[in-house]
Specification:
By secondary structure, the protein is α+β, with helices and mostly antiparallel strands. It contains three helices and six strands. Strands 1, 4, 5 and 6 form a four-stranded antiparallel β-sheet that branches. Strands 2-3 form a two-stranded antiparallel sheet. The chain is elongated, with a radius of gyration of 17 Å.
Length: about 80
């Protein structure tokens, strides 16, 4: 299982908005606003010149518990 989990790394990067035409931090971005988003989403915005990369600091790796099925819902009696 560990061999499967290792390549699954969700990279989160900090970007700065250059245009106000996309969502960042849960609302429409203002020019110059900074926020954190997935690297895959940020790469499209950077390629389209809508955002610029500020930092690659924040990152996390998916844990085995994140891949498990959620607990079943309990019925209230």
């Amino acid at each position: 299982m560990r061999a499967f989990i290792e390549p699954l790394k969700i990279r989160r990067v900090k970007v700065r908005a250059l245009t106000p035409n996309f969502y960042l931090n849960g609302h429409q971005a203002q020019v110059g606003e900074e926020g954190i988003m997935d690297f895959s989403d940020a790469s499209y915005l950077i390629a389209a010149s809508k955002a610029e990369l500020v930092s690659e600091e924040p990152a996390r790796t998916i844990a085995a518990r994140d891949l498990q099925d959620p607990l079943p819902l309990r019925r209230l009696v």
